[in-house]
Amino acid sequence: MKKIFAYIAVMVAFAVHAENTPCPFDKSKMEFAGTPVEQARCLLRPVAQGGVLGQPLATLPGPLEKLIGQPVQITREALLKYLQAHQILESDIGGPLTQHATAKYFVIHDTSTKNYGTNSIPDNINTPDWALNNLKRWTNLPVAHVFVNRLGQSLTWHPFSMSWRATKFERTTITREESKGMFIHIENSQPRRSDPNGHKGNDAIAPIPGFTLPQLDRLALLYVTASLEHGTWLVPGYHCAIDAGIPDGHDDPQHFDLAQWATRLEMLLKEVK
Fold first, then answer.
1. pTM for this structure?
2. Which secondary-structure segment (H or E) carries 215?
């Protein structure tokens, strides 16, 4: 019986290891292996608690399967008209739109902040009353290109045309020069609390849903903006999947509803066009 349990434990460990295997990276091309769509299917694997990744997706939801890697058909004029109608500044979404973005990848992060420890996550995190929805609180923490709060408002730390590193992959797997301008990083506000079964001070538990609809809408707009500046639809990916296989990697984003984000993106595209 002990041998059977030991065998099961080994197989479970193997399965977890197999699922968390990094997406293959082709250094000769400086990109992940496969077509842009195939890359996205691997980089958008579901992220479970503790940073455990699911299997690569068989197909991407909504418009993503057809868009990724294809030329962007939206014009700058159409997007500017949309921004003006909704009173959104180019400077809030990684602009100005006239700049050229060299990035191939659009990386989705969550901030994992604030960690409430053993306390419950407050009920007001999706309201202006929650202090971390104040964009001014983030102006001195330029850790990515753009920050999105839970109200769907955004703050640009670095324009999309600027090279910026925000993953362990960019620091350990490829060199500083090789990673220059490859990734666009978006931090999305998400608090955490500790799992009582985990180590002291852990931030394993995220709210459900992980992100608000306004947050997903702004993320969709940022994806459109970044892709327009690049010229083709970027390959989206999760921070956790980018860093897969690297010791002490990240577990974000937690509870990201890819299908819902794809739906919001599709709605946005119809309105912009």
1. 0.92
2. helix 213-230
